[in-house]
């Protein structure tokens, strides 16, 4: 892998650790860039199999997420990382088992986009207010190798249907 890609992966790994985990969880996250790269490669194969099995036509972002903009929303109203999104979402795994959902819209108690998982940070900035996006997020861009209670197991690829209802 060339030096540019290794540096990009290192930066992305740092972002995942900072935004996806609390300080106590960071020490348990990916031990090095090699673990991160290996996980991304392995999960990319599983994601491509899921895409093929479901006849999906998705875009692939350089970050590693796959996405389809179902409705671009207001093309004059895009979020930045400091924006507070109000979302409606359903989050599943690659077996299409529902992990959690908003059951209406939520702003996550006023949490800024920068405080959400990296996959959401990347994906939600692709649509405007009122937009809808379908995302497949490898675990390093989600919750990584940290389980989220009994809801999301460690190393889970996330499949998300999201609507950006509003943002501040």
Q: How would you explain this protein's 3D organization?
A:
It is a single chain. With 168 residues, the chain is α+β, with helices and mostly antiparallel strands. The protein has a single domain, classed as Roll (Chitinase A, domain 3), CATH 3.10.50.40. The protein is built from four helices and eight strands; from the N terminus they run αααβββββαβββ. A hairpin with a 5-residue loop joins strand 1 (59-60) and strand 2. It catalyses: [protein]-peptidylproline (omega=180) = [protein]-peptidylproline (omega=0). Residues 82-168 form the PPIase FKBP-type domain. Its EC number is 5.2.1.8. Keywords: Isomerase, Rotamase.
Please outline what is shown here.
Helices cover 30% and strands 26% of the residues.
CATH architecture: Roll
Compute the number of strand runs: 8
Structural domain tally: 1
Give the class from helix and strand content and strand pairing. Answer: alpha+beta
Order of helices and strands: HHHEEEEEHEEE
Whole-angstrom Rg = 15 Å
Report low-confidence residues grouped into runs of 5 or more.
Answer: 1-28
Calculate the mean pLDDT score and round it: 87
Give helix % range: 25-40%
Spatial strand order of the main sheet: 1-2-7-8-4-5
Report the principal-axis shape: globular
CATH topology annotation: Chitinase A, domain 3
| H/I helix tally | 4
Strand content: 25-35%
Q: Separation of termini?
A: 40 Å
Main β sheet profile:
6 strands, antiparallel
Q: Can you identify the CATH class?
A: Alpha Beta
